[in-house]
Amino acid sequence: MEVVNRNKVKAFITKDGSEIREILAPRNSSLRNQSLAEARVSPGKATIQHYHIASEEIYYILQGEARVRVEGEVREVAEGDGIAIMPGQSHRIWNTGAEELVFLCCCSPSYGDEDTVISE
After folding, report:
1. Residue 28: CA atoms inside 13 Å, Cβ hemisphere, count?
2. DSSP 8-state code for residue 10
3. HEC string of 22-54?
4. Which of 34, 70, 86, 98 has fewest C-beta within 10 Å?
5. Is 32 exposed, middle or buried (0-12, 13-18, 19+ CB in 10 A)?
6. Can you give the C-alpha Rg of the chain in angstroms?
7. Is residue 88 within 8 Å of 53, Cβ to Cβ?
8. Pair 111, 47: CB distance under 8 Å
9. Alpha helices (H) along the chain
């Protein structure tokens, strides 16, 4: 069994401009096919529109309010909402609230800058 505490994982900025902490990923565990990260977007900020060549993603909103666009469809989302994003689907998320937007990001295969294509 492996247990990784998010408070002991160093944050970094992804290619799409969000700040993430990889809680479990191939870089810090024995996982090989997926990753779990906590992402944060400050009030009034957004990620850069992008897509992933191979990875499918799940965003799960833990805190805050946001607008998410996936392949041209726009939805308002908030705490408790999950968003499915398939490989090749261009997407972006905006923090529309007054507090920091915090969400989990699950990727399979695991997140990698080499799999991220900026589409703005």
Report:
1. 17
2. -
3. EEECCCCCCCCCCEEEEEEECCCCECCCEEECC
4. 98
5. exposed
6. 13
7. yes
8. no
9. none
Q: How far apart are CA 6 and CA 9, in angstroms?
A: 5
How is residue 113 annotated by DSSP?
Answer: G
Whether 117 and 111 have beta carbons less than 8 Å apart is answered as: no
Task: Summarize pLDDT for 1-56 with one digit per residue, the tens.
Answer: 999 999 999 999 999 999 999 999 999 999 999 999 999 999 999 999 999 999 99
Domains, the chain, in order of start with CATH, read 34-118 (2.60.120.10)
- Give CA–CA dist 13/98, Å, rounded: 21
CA dihedral (110, 50, 74, 64) positive or negative: positive
The 10 Å Cβ neighbour count of residue 98 is 9
